[in-house]
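your task:
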Amino acid sequence: MMQLVRNHSATRTARARCRGAVISGLCWLVLVAASVHAGEPGPRAMLQEMTDQVLAQIHRDPKQLEDIRQVRKLADRYVLPHVDFRTAAQWVLGKYWRTATEQQREQFVTQFRTLLLNTYLRSIANYHENAIRILPLRVPPRAGRARVDAEVEQSSGPPVHVSFRLHRVNGKWLIYDLSVDGISLVATHRSTFAREISQQGLNSLITRLARLNSQQQQTGTN
């Protein structure tokens, strides 16, 4: 009986991690750029510029997708400056953020950032040709927060709905969460990580993510 319980728990954890990877890949598909013109554009305009500029870079030289180092440079230049990884990491850890030391927080932010970047590097080559449509805002930004919706066209089947949650920090709109068809990237990781932390501790999670990130980088994130 105990073996069945352990097997069920392991299967559930594996499925949660797999679902998180799929969600991350689709989210990063839409986050595949980040160049902001002067003049502090609104959140929708920023995302539209993000999409247009990096896709233009890729279409100008598609072969760069074959070089992970070039894709990483694109991400470092266009994507990462517009994501608030610290806020996302804080939301992911939830109550464990409050009890974590500053060193643990910094280590987790670093590894979580790398985890999402590696997911992006794996997904961009597969999804860069999908059409992306940034939708008009349903509700104007309020109190420095906004939600922007987008649709990712698929060759077969209905479009995938993606939502961005942003907040304004020092005059810049930064993304702190994304969701695909209503499933939040932050919430998915939060559920998976919470179980692991409760069983093995935060340091164990940080160590596992560091090991995973290192393996993915050594193998070209494949």
